UniProtKB/TrEMBL annotation:
Residues that coordinate or bind substrate: S229, Q251, H254, H320, D353, E407, H412
Cross-referenced PANTHER family: HISTIDINE BIOSYNTHESIS TRIFUNCTIONAL PROTEIN, HISTIDINOL DEHYDROGENASE HDH
Pfam families found in the cross-reference section: Histidinol_dh (PF00815)
Binding-site residues for Zn(2+), renumbered to this chain: Q251, H254, D353, H412
Alphabetical list of InterPro entries matching this protein: Ald_DH/histidinol_DH (IPR016161), Histidinol_DH_CS (IPR001692), Histidinol_DH_monofunct (IPR022695), Hstdl_DH (IPR012131)
Names of required cofactors: Zn(2+)
Similarity comment: Belongs to the histidinol dehydrogenase family.
The EC number(s) this enzyme carries: 1.1.1.23
UniProt-recorded Gene Ontology molecular function terms: histidinol dehydrogenase activity
Protein name: Histidinol dehydrogenase
């Protein structure tokens, strides 16, 4: 990892992958095909892209039972405990509908209503992600969503990974389909004979999934356009180089496009981490992926002061931010932009990825400047409630009419005046 000194005028932006023209054209073609041919398009693309010829898209009860035979009791216990932690955390977010009555009889309020149907995309490919099932399904359930549909690309044997199926079964997900890629997004957005349309699509995926979600936004809602994983570690000279290096590599092994960055006030730590990263890379099973990530998107920035370091962190607006300093809590107030903030040496990023309870679906590519983690709020919508009494409208009618005429909307003005003719 290259060490670079940062003094002032911090500008550490990362280019967001918007996809190539060919990728966008391919996604549009797939979506249009799914809209026209429905299930048959899903079967054809699964055969083409996943090299699997399916007889049914729906996961059967037999497949779910078989998955339990492949997962040890120890892992099952861990999945259940993680699910309980995640549910407990998200249940604290639930908002209630409310109303307020004023002395003049006016009633104002807000009605909170869960979405009717949500589609959860669980990525496949290089790895299986039971944690994605938990993080996407549980907040939807807590919000009160009635219908939750899960889609995920099948393995070469035509089945979904056992861990993914067990996680979904533990949560009681009934509709699980063996389909991935842009074609799965199309099915969730437009609906087919087998996969009925939903109102919102959540969950990460590759560039084709991301582009497909962007294209169907407006027909359905989406959570975000997720980019590659990223971590920034803010550290001073009290941090341990081996721990910092391990945490940087925990993101680098995700994807060759993942970004791992250290921002520190200590040149000594920077040099030690640089050596430690190379040392740990040598024994990493996913060495090729992590090495490419570190080479292309890894960086160590050394600042003169903690204020400059914090400025750099806020400019990067990372998905994951670890604060490994002597007094991490003292810095929280200065951190404006981060998807999730991990405080202290015992709060390594994987603690949040799998077990602590907060959601690991987080804003990437600097979007933490204006976006939040997936939450219960992601699965509800809010309606305003307005009930004016005669007394209240009589008091305000002339003001409302004047405002309407200021905007040139005479019918608006007459609509309130008509009550008093």
């Amino acid at each position: 990892m290259k060490i670079e000194r940062v003094t002032e005028n911090v500008s550490l932006k990362r280019t967001i992958d918007q996809g190539t023209d060919d990728q966008r054209k391919a996604v549009l073609s797939i979506l249009e095909d799914v809209k026209e041919r429905g299930d048959q398009a899903l079967y054809d693309y699964t055969k083409k892209f996943d090299q699997v010829e399916l007889s049914s898209l729906l996961v059967t009860e037999e497949e779910k039972k078989s998955a339990y035979e492949e997962v040890s009791e120890e892992l099952l216990t861990i999945i259940r405990e993680a699910a309980a932690n995640i549910r407990d955390y998200h249940e604290r977010m639930v908002q209630q509908s409310w109303m307020v009555t004023k002395e003049d009889g006016t009633i104002l309020g807000q009605k909170v209503t869960p979405l009717d149907a949500v589609g959860v995309y669980v990525p496949g490919g290089l790895a299986a992600y039971p944690s994605s099932v938990l993080m996407n399904v549980i907040p939807a359930q807590v919000a009160g969503v009635e219908r939750i549909v899960m889609v995920s690309p099948p393995q070469k044997n035509g089945l979904l990974p056992a861990g993914v199926l067990v996680a979904a079964s533990e949560l009681g997900v009934k509709e699980i389909y063996k389909v991935g890629g842009a074609q799965a997004i199309g099915a969730l957005a437009y609906g087919t004979d087998t996969v009925k349309a939903v109102d919102k699509i959540v969950g990460p995926g590759n560039i084709f999934v991301a582009l497909a979600k962007r294209e169907v936004y407006g027909i359905v809602d989406i959570d975000s356009i997720a980019g590659p994983s990223e971590i920034v570690i803010l550290a001073d000279d009290t941090a341990k180089a081996n721990e910092v290096a391990a945490d940087l590599l925990s993101q680098a092994e995700h994807d060759a496009l993942a970004s791992s960055v250290l921002v520190t006030t200590s040149m000594k730590l920077a040099e030690e981490v640089q050596i430690e990263v190379e040392k740990q890379l040598a024994t990493l099973p996913r060495q090729a992926i992590a090495s490419q990530s570190v080479k292309d998107y890894g960086a160590i920035y050394v600042t003169e002061t903690m204020e400059q370091a914090l400025e750099a962190v806020n400019e990067l607006a990372p998905e994951h931010l670890e604060v490994m300093t002597e007094s991490p809590l003292e810095l929280v107030g200065s951190i404006r932009h981060a998807g999730a903030i991990f405080l202290g040496r015992y709060s390594s990023e994987p603690v949040g990825d799998y077990f602590a309870g907060p959601n690991h679906v987080l804003p990437t590519n600097g979007t933490a400047k204006f976006s939040s983690p997936l939450s219960v709020d992601s699965f509800v919508k809010k309606s305003s409630i307005i009930s004016y009494s005669k007394q209240a409208l009589e008091r305000d009618v002339n003001k409302i009419a004047a405002f309407a005429r200021l905007e040139g909307l005479e019918a608006h003005a007459r609509a309130v005046e008509e009550r008093f003719k």
